[in-house]
Fold each of these.
Amino acid sequence: MFEKNILKGKVAIVTGGGTGIGKEIALGLASLGAKIAIAGRKEEKLSKGIEEIKKVSSDAVYIQTDIREESQVQRLFKKVADTFGRIDILVNNAGGQFIAPFKDITTNGFDAVVKTNLYGTWFCCKEAAKYMKQGKIINIVHIYAIKAAPGLAHSGAARAGVINLTKTLALELAPHITVNAIAPGITVTEGFKEEMINNKKMMQELQETIPLRRFADPKEIAYCTSFLVSPAADFITGQVIAVDGGQLLSNWPDFNKLKG
Amino acid sequence: MKGKTALITGGSRGIGKAIALRLAKEGCNIILNDRQSNEETIAEIKKLGVQVMSVPADVSKFEDIQKMVEEIKLKFPKVDILVNNAGITQDRTLRKMTPEEWNSVISVNLTSVYNVTHCVLPLIPEGGRIINMASIAGISGNFGQCNYSASKAGIIGFTKALAKEVGKNKITVNAIAPGLIKSPMTDKIPVMMLEQMIELIAMKELGAIEDVANLVAFLASDQARYISAEVIRVDGGMAL
C-alpha cells in the first residue's frame, strides 16, 4: 500500500513515542523515511524506544518532555526544529489514565488526566501551528471518547475534548494543515497482555462482542496513522477514524470490571 | 494486493474508474461493472498488466445481477474486494420530486447495494473487503437531494449492519463519504453554484477522484484489516 520513502525529508514528532502504540507509530513513520523525534516524561522508556527506532531510521532523537507543561512543549518544538530544520507531522499520542468509578475520582485525579490528555494535546497543537508550513496533525484518542466510558469518566471527557479540538482545528488551520483523529479500540500493548492473562474469561467474552472478534494490534493503529500523514490522505481532514474492529457498534463494557 | 480480485460497480468512469485504476496499480485483477462496457477504461486497466473482465449489468435489477455473478464465477472463483460505487443523481426539491425520480435514485443507489452484495457475498473469502460509496449528503443532507441523501444514508446503515454480520468471517465493511469531488457528477453543477459550494470546503478546493481511490486502496489493503463499520469522509473538511 505505501510507497517506500513516501515521507522522505519529513520530520515527525510523536508524543508518548517510547512505548506501546506511540512506538509503533514512530517505527511506522520511520520506515517510510521520516525523521523522528519522540517525546515523553520518562527517560528510561524513551531511551529504550529510540534504540528500536534508530534501527529503522538513524535520524531519530528523543526529547524528555512533560507535555503538561507549556514551557516544556515549547522547548520540545524548538529543539526538534533546531535539530532537523522543520516540523511536518505531529502525532499527539501521549495519554494517561487510571480506571476508577466516577465517585472515586478526586479533583486532583481528574486534573492530572485532563492535563495530560487535553492540555498536552492543546500545547502541542499550538506549537505545531507556529512551526508547520504544510503539515499533518494526528490525535490518538480512543473509541470510549465517542461513546460513554464507564470507569474512565475523566479520560472520556478529556479525549472527547480532543475530538472536538480536532474538528475545530481542521477548519481553523485549513488549508495548510490537516487535522484528524484516530480512535483505537482495545489494543494489545505490552501492558495489556498481562491484563489478558489475568482476566482470560472476561477478555474472551469481551472479544465476542467485537464484530471482528479480537482486539487491535498496535501496528494497526500505526498503519492508519501512516495513511493519514501520507499524501494519499491530503483531502481528508477533521475526521475521526475508529480502528476498532467495529466495536463502536457493540454493547459497551464497564471498564471498572476490567480493573485486574 | 497482488493476485486479488476486485469488483467495482459503476467502474467505467469518474470515481469508479479511478478506483479500478488504483486497485489495478496495486496488482488486483479487475471486474468492471457498469450499464455499458467502456472499451477505453478496459484498455487503460489492461495496460497495468492485470486481468480485466467487463460485466455490464443494471445494478438495480436483481435478476441481472444474479446472471452477472454467474458470469463472474466462470472466470474468477472469488471476489476479494467489492466496491459498491454505482450511483446517480436526479435532483429536485421534494415538493416537485416525482415518484419516478425518488424510485430510480433509491433503486440505483441503495437497492443495488443489496442486489450486488447479496449475490457476491458467497464469493467473498475470509479477509475480504466490502467498500460502499456513500456521500456527505448521507450525513449532512443536501438541498434538492432528498432522494440521493436518503439513499446514501441508507448505505451507511447497511454498512454498519453488515459489518456485524460478517465480522466473524474477518470481512470488513466500510463506507466512504466523498464531499465535492471533481467528477462527471460535479461537472453537471453550474459554475456559479460550484464556486459558492467550494467556499464551504475548509480546504477551499474540490477533491480529486484519486483522493477517493487512495482511501479505497488503503481500506482494501491488509494494513486496514481492523477498520470496520466506519464511515470515512473524503471531503476536505466540508461536513464540519
Amino acid sequence: MKAASLSASNPKEVSRVIARTRRDFLRSAGGMTLGSALLRSPWARAAAHTSKRKVVVVTFGGGARDQETFAPEGQENIPHLMRELLPQATFFTQVVNRGILGHYVATASLATGVYETINNFASLPPQSPTVFEYFRKGLKRPSSDAWVVAPSNGFNRIGESSHRAYGPGLGARVILPKHLLTAATSGRGNDYEHLLRDNYETPYFSPELEGNEFELQQLEMILKLSVDDFKTHAQTLSSPDELSVYIARQLMRQVSPSLLWITMHDIDIAHAGAYSLYVEGIRRTDRLCSDLWKTIQSEPEYAGKTTLFILPDFGRDSDDDAGGNGFQHHRTGDALSRTTWMLAAGPGIRENVVFDRAMESTDLVPTLGSMLGFSASFAQGKPISELL
Amino acid sequence: MLPRDLKPEQFAGYPPEARRVVTNYLAILQQLPPSFVPGLLRELIDYDFKFPAERKAHEKELSYLNSLSAGQRKDWFRGFAEIQLSPELEMFDWVKSPAQFVEQLSAHLWSTHQLDAFRRASNEYADRLRSAALPDPPTVSRLGITVIGQGVASYDEPLFRKLRAHGAYFSRVKSEDGLRVLLDAVAARARTHPDAYAHWYIDGGEATDHPPALTCVSYSALEPVRAALLRKMQTELDRPGMGPEALRTLLAQMHPSDLGMNTGNDGKPGDEVLDRFKVKLLTEGSGTQIFSTSFAQWAAREALRRAQPLTLLVRFAPRQRQKPMNELLSSVPARPELDGVGSLIDADMGAYYNWLNQQRLPGAEQASFLVWFEGHSQALAIGPSLPRGTESTSPADLGQLLEWAG
C-alpha cells in the first residue's frame, strides 16, 4: 500500500521544518518588533466608537505556502505586503487550520469560527452562524452593512448559515462577480467558458446557484454600474480576482458596508500544476491587497476607521511530503498545508510587529466580535488578545 | 463488510494475477483493519497492469505481513484499528470497488477530523515496512536528467535555485548536440542494463528519435487521447446529476480502449501496462490535459513512484499560454500561443520535483542527477562525488557532467 512517507513526513521532522521556517519568517524584514515583548494592544483605547468601525477581511487565496509568500525565499513575490502593509501591520506567523482543506468549507470555517464539515463542492450554507449573522443580529445592522465578494458559485451560500437561531434574512449579501459577468456576456464562445470556470479544485464542475443571488439587474440599482460599463471595465482586467476587487471598490463607494469580506482565488490556478501561474497569482493578489488598502485609506467612509485582515484560508502541500505533489494541491493535510499567516492593519493595531505563537483560523470571528462589539457565541476560537 | 468476512469467491471479478495474489494472502487480509484493507486492494486490483517494481514491492509487503505474529500485527496496525468508519462505509462493497471506497473514506476522514490520525498511521506503517522489508537496491546507480527551457532564447533570472545547494552549477556548458549526447547516454545505459521499464524518456512535446529500448511517453503522441478524454468529460458533465465525485469515479474506470488507444488491436504487440499508465496520467493528473509542463512533471513523478526506473530523461516543452481575462473577453478564438518563459519557470520547479522524487527511491545516496537549460550553457549536476553548493566557470560538455555526476 502506498502511504505518505519520506523523512520529512515524519511528524518530528515536519515540526522541525516548520519551526525553522517560522524562525526564518521575515528575517530579512529588518526593524520588525517581536510582539511577545509588547504589552496589550492600544486598540481598546483607539476604538472608542465601535459603531463607526469597519472591517475588511481578505482571504489571500486560494491557498498559498509560506515559501512563496512570507518566508525569506518567497518575499520577492509579495513586495506590496512587505514594503507597504507590513510596516503598518501586526503579523501572525502561525495560523493553523485544523479543518477540511477545501476552499469553500475552509472559508466557511473562517467565517463561522467553527471547523465546518459541509461538502466543499455542494451549494450548502455553513452549519454554524456566520460572522455576518452575529454582526447583523447582535448590532441590529441592516442587510446593506455586511457583504461578501466571492469567486465561485459554491460560495453563494456563505453569507448566512442554516443555524436555527440565525439563518435566512440575517446574513450578508453575497456577490459573485464572475457569475455576474457570465450573465452579462451570455452566449460567448468557448474561450469565455474557460475564463469563467467556477473553481480550480474541480475545474470542470460548477455547482448550481441556490439561495439569495445578487442579480445582474441589481448592478445598476446598488452599485450604480450599468451592465455595459461593467462589461467594458471587465475587458480591461487580467483576472477574476481583479474583477472581484473592482466590484469590492464599487461596493465600498456606493454602499460602504461596515463588514466586507473578499475571497480571492486566482492563486488556486496552482491545481493545474504550472508553478509560474501560481506565483503570478500570488504577485497579483499581493498587488490587489495593496490596492484595497489604498482604497480603504482614500475612501472617506473607510479612512481612519477600518481594520484590514489578510490571511490565506490555508497553505498548500509541502514539497517534502511524498503523498502530495508540492505546491499543486492541498490534499495531504500535512502541517505545512495547515499552517499559514495573518496580517492585520488599521487604527489601534500595532505597527511593524510580529507574533510567533500558534493560533487557529477559527480565532478570527471571536476577534472580530470583540472588536466590533458583538458576541460570537457559537464560535470555537478565542479572541486574539494581541489585537484587542 | 469486514475483512474477516472475506472469501475467495468475492474476488472472481479481479483480473487473473490480482486474483491469484489476493487469494494467496487472503488469510492475512482477513486479519487487518477495515480502514486499511480497501487501500491495499485498490493497489492489488490493478496488479496485472503494474510495473515489475510495483509487483515486487506488493509481494514483499504481503509476504512480510504474513510473517508477523498476532502481537506484532496488532502493534503495527493499532493506528488504523482506531479509525472509526461510518455505517455507510462499513456497508460499502469495497472488494468490488476499492478505489471508490478510498475516495469516500478520504471525505469521511476529513469531515470527522480523523485525517491526521490516519496520516500518522500511514506514515508509521510505511516507516516500519521500509525498515523491516528493505527494498532492493537498484542494479546500477540511478540517473535522472531533466532538460528545461526548450525554445527560450534568453533568460536572465537565476535558474536551478532550489537545487544549487545539492550540487555543482556549471555556467559554461557546451550545448552543441546536447540533447543527442544525453539521449545517447540513456540509450547506452539501456543496452547495458536491459530490464523492462528501467529506462524512460518523457517528452512534454514531440519525442525526438530514440531507441526502442527506452520506455517513451510524450505529450504530443497523446494528443488524440487527450482530445477524446475531454470530449467524454464534457458529455458526462452535461448529464443531470453529474458531480465531481461521480466524474472522478468515471475517470478512474477508464481504460485505454475507451479513449481510442489500440492496445494490441492493430496487429502490433500491445503494451497494456504502459497504455494504462498513460491513461492514468490524464485521468488522475491535474492539469495534465491542458498544460504540457504539468504533464511532463506528473509523468516523471508517476514513473519514478511506480516503475522506479534506473534512468529517467525528462524534456520539458513549452506549454500553451494562459490568456488573461481581458484577452479572453475580447479576442476571437485563435490557435493557442506558447508561453516559453512561463514554461521554463514551471520546468525549473519540475526539475526540483524530479530530483526530490528520485531521492525517495532506494539507492538515493548513490544516485546522480543533471538538469540542463536546453541550448544554453547553464547546467547543474548532483552526484555522490560532486561537491555541493559549488559553481564552476570552467568549460565542460554534457558528457563530462554525466561522468562527474555518476
Amino acid sequence: MNFLRAAVREPLLHFVLIGALLFAVTALRQKQAEHAEIRITAGEVAQLAAFWETQAQRKPTAEELRGAIEERIDEEVLAREAVRLGLDRDDVIVRRRLAQKMAFVSDDLAIVAEPSEAELREYFDAHRETYTTPDLYALRHVYFNPDRHKTLDADAQRALQRLSRGANADDVGDPFMLPRELADVSREDIVRDFGSSFADAVTGSTPGSWSGPVRSSFGVHLIKLESHTPSSAARFEDVRDNVREAFLAQRQREANAALRTKLRQQYKIVVETAEGTGS
Amino acid sequence: MRTRILAGAVAAVLLAGGVTAAEGNRDRNAYFGDLHVHTKLSFDAYIFNVRATPDDAYRYARGESVHHASGYDVRLTDAPLDFLAVTDHSEYLGIVPAMNDPQHPLSKIPYAPDLFSTDPAKITNAFQQLGASLRSGKYLPELKDFDTMRSAWRTVIDSADRNYVPRKFTTFRGYEYTSAPDGQNLHRNVIFSGARTPDLPFTALESQNPEELWRWMDGQRKQGIEVLAIPHNSNGSDGRMFQRTQFDGRPMDRAYAELRARNEPLAEITQVKGTSETHPSLSPNDEWSSFEIMDTYIGSATKVTKFAGGYVRDALKTGLEFDQAQGFNPYHFGFVGASDTHNAAGSFEENRYFGKVGILDGKPEQRGSVPPAGKTWEKDEPPVSVARYQTWGSAGLTGVWAEENTRESIFAALRRKETFATSGTRMRVRFFAGYDLPDGIENRRDMVSQSYAHGVAMGSDLLQRGTSAPRFLAWALRDPHSGWLQRVQIVKGWIEGGKAQERVFDVACSDGLTPDKTTHRCGDNGATVDLRTCAVSENKGAVELRAAWSDPTFDPNQRAFYYVRVLENPSCRWSTWDAIRAGVEPNPKLARTIQERAWSSPIWYVPQR
C-alpha cells in the first residue's frame, strides 16, 4: 500500500505515464493520418514566389523557391499536428480569429422575410417621433441688390405697392441666384440661406399677402408666405420605404442575435465565478 | 405659379432649401460638399491618432461636433454640408486599427507595437514600411489580410448608406486609390453612384497604373455599377499626373484618351495640400497664380522639379494641343475642391483652422503659425514637417448645380461636369455660353432658364456655328459667411500656331469699377485687411457680380476653353488668425492674407474640322 501510495505521488511516474499516453494517441492518429495528403498547389507555389519577391525585391532562384516550399510544408505539417493535439484550443489569438471569421461568414446571411403592412405600421407607430417633420413653409420673395439701388428702401416700398395691387412677382425686383420661390422648407433651411431676420419675417407672417422689406444676408426682400404646414407626424404612406428599411435593419440585427443564441443552445455553458459556479 | 408651388408642396415630403417641385428645381440649385475625407480606417490617419469613424465624418458634415485627435472638439459653425463621401485609403483599409487590437492576429506582427509606441522614431520607422509599400506598389505579405479589409470596406459603405437622407443630405460610397510610383502622386478618389459596389476596391497594390484602375471601372460599369475617379494633388506628381504620354511612356492614342475621359470627368484642383490650378512659372502673366502653392512631393520634403503636367490649366492646354494635332483630348475635365482631411472633419474656415493630419498639425506650433515656446521667427529654423504644414491651405469645397439633393441628381451633375471648386468659401458661380443668349441677359430675372434654353452650362462643349462669336454669362453670389466679391475673371486657353496660349480677363468688377479695355483688369477697389485684428474694409466689394461677355480675341477657327475664376476681397490667412490669437507676430515667411476664390468648370469652344 505504502509503495503504491508513494508511486501515485511520484512525478517521474506521472511523466512516464503521460508520455506513454501521448505516444499512444500520436501513434494512433499517425495511423489515421497515413493517407492524409498535403498538397501544395501550383497557385500556392506562385504565391510563395511572389511573397519571396516582395521581400527580396528579386525573383527567387530554383533553390530558394524549393526552400520556401519546404518551409511551407513544415508549416502545414506542424499546424495540422497542432490541431490534432488540440493546441489551438487554448490560444486566444486562434480563437478570436476563428470567431471573427465565423461572425463574418454568418452575419447578415439570414434571409429576412418581407414584412407585412401590419408589421410595418406597428413599427411605425412604435417609432413615431423618428418620422415627425418640422414646420414647413412655402414662400415667394423678390430681391433688391443694395449695390444696384441708390434708394433701396423706397424702391422696395414702391415694388411692394405694385405687388399688393396684383403685379406678377416675376416682373418685380432684381435677378437673384437662389430660387425666388421655395416649397416645403423648414426654418432651419431658411436661416441657412437667408439669415435669421429673414426667417423670422417668414415664420411670423400670415399667408397670402406680400410684406417687407426684410433684410437677408444678400440685401433686401419682399416676401409672401404661401402656406405653412405645422409640424406633424409623417403619414405612414409617405415614409413607408424608410420604415421598411429600419424594420429590416432591426430584423437583421435580431436574426444575427438569434443565430448566436441558437448556436449557444448547442452548448452547455458554465461560467465559474469567485462566488461559485453558475450556468 | 400658385399651382406649381402647391403641386410641389403636395408631392414632396421632405425637401431641402431652394427646391420648387418634386422633381427638383429645373434651374438647378448649388449644393456644397466634400468628396475627399479620411477616417481612422485609413492607415495613415490611424497612426496620426485619429479615431473618428465614417459615421463621425457624416455627423460632422451635418453640423454636429466631433473629437479632434489633439484633444478638442471641432464643428462646422457656418452651415452644414449638403453632401459628403468618406474616401479612406483602400490600401491596407482597416489594417492599422486591427494591428492595434491586441486580440487581432495582425497585432502580433513584430513592428506592430512600434506603430503605436510613444517614440516618434519608432513610429516613423514602422510607418516607413507602409510608405515604402505604397511607393513600390507591392503588398507587405504579412498585412495582406483581405478579410479585415473586406470588413472595413463594409463599414465604409454601410455608413454611407445609413447616413444618406434623400433631399436633405447625400452620401456616396467611395475610396481613395493611392498610387504614388516613386513617390510621384497619382492618387484618385473613386466615387460610386449608388448602393452597389464591388466586394473590395481596386487598389494601387493591385496596380499603380491608373489605366488598370480605369479598365477595372469599365468592368464595374458593364455590371451596372456606375463609378467615376477624381485625381487630386497633381501638384505633388512632379509633372506626371497630366503628362503627355501614357503611364508607361508610350504615346497617347484615342483609346487612351477615351478610357481616361470616360472614367475621369473631373479633377480636384484645391485642397489642404495646395492648389493645383496653375503655378507662377506656368502662368507668369496671371497675378493670382501663386495661391496656396505646395511645391513638394506628398509626405516628404522632396522638391517638385516639373510644374508642367502638374497643374490643371496646363493640362487643359495640353488637351487642346492633342485635340488640334490628333483629334482626341485626354484632358477634358471639370473642377472640384475638397479637404482631404484625415480628421474625418474638413477645416474650411480660415479663422478656425485645425489642420488635416491629426496630432501632427493639430496645434499652431506644429504648423508654423506660432513659434515654439522660447523661440522667435528670426532665430528658429522649423523642422521639415512644420515647414511643410505651414504651406498648406485651409480646405476647399465642391459646388454642384443639381435639381435636388439626391445621389442621382448630384452624381449626374458630377458626370456632366456642372461643378465648381472653391477655396472653402460657399460663393455660388454660374457660367453659360451660347450664340443666342439674348441681349441684356445679365439683367433678366429669368437669365438661368434663358441660358439653359439657348446655351450650354459649365462643363460642356460649345460647337462652332459658322463665324458666330459666342456670348458668355458669368455670375457669382457671395457666401454671406465669407468675404465680399472683388472681381469675376474668365481664364481663356486657346491654340495659336499649334501651341496653347492662355490669358486672364477681368469681366466684372466691384465698387462701380470696369475692366480696362486693353489690360482687361479691374481697378483697385481699395479693400484692405487690418492685420492686427483681421477686420476687413466695410463697404468694399459686392454681394454679387455678373457680366455678359464676348471674347475680344475670339477667332472662330481657334480651339479654346474658358473658365470662370471669382475672387473675394483679401482676408486673413489661417496662419495670421493663429498668430493673432496667440498674440505673436505672424510668420514672416507666410502670406498674411489670401483672396478666397472659386473656379467654374470650363466650357470648351470646339471648331469644326
